[in-house]
Amino acid sequence: MAGDVGLRRTGEGERHCVECGLAVSGRADKKFCCDSCRTAYHNSRVRKMNTPKNEVDRILAGNRRLLTGLTSDGITKIALADTRMKTFDRFYYTSAQVRRWRTTVYCCYEYRYTIRHDFLQMV
Length: 123
Ligand SMILES: [Zn+2]
What we know:
- The protein is of the alpha+beta class.
- It has two domains: about 1-50, no CATH class; about 55-120, no CATH class.
- The protein has two helices and eight strands, in the order βββααβββββ.
């Protein structure tokens, strides 16, 4: 039935909570046994929907943290092969701008850098 999406039924007229499986009583369209199950179910759905975004945010935050560390240590140029750069993912940035001579300036939030000949150079 169209109105029963996600609702589990085991016996005649017997309904069970979509989250925990306990019996549900009350309104015919009620899907959850309590508010905490309803909240847990919706939070879990939102978490699943945001997974790709969270992954990109996590990588960008890691890159930014690394660039912040380099800046505070006064490092303006570093080899991508440097051990300090092993968590840096060069394919994730917040924006990019192609300049003259095909130099691309990448941004990771407030940090700007170029990557040439396997070196990252802060701009
Ligand atoms: Zn429940």
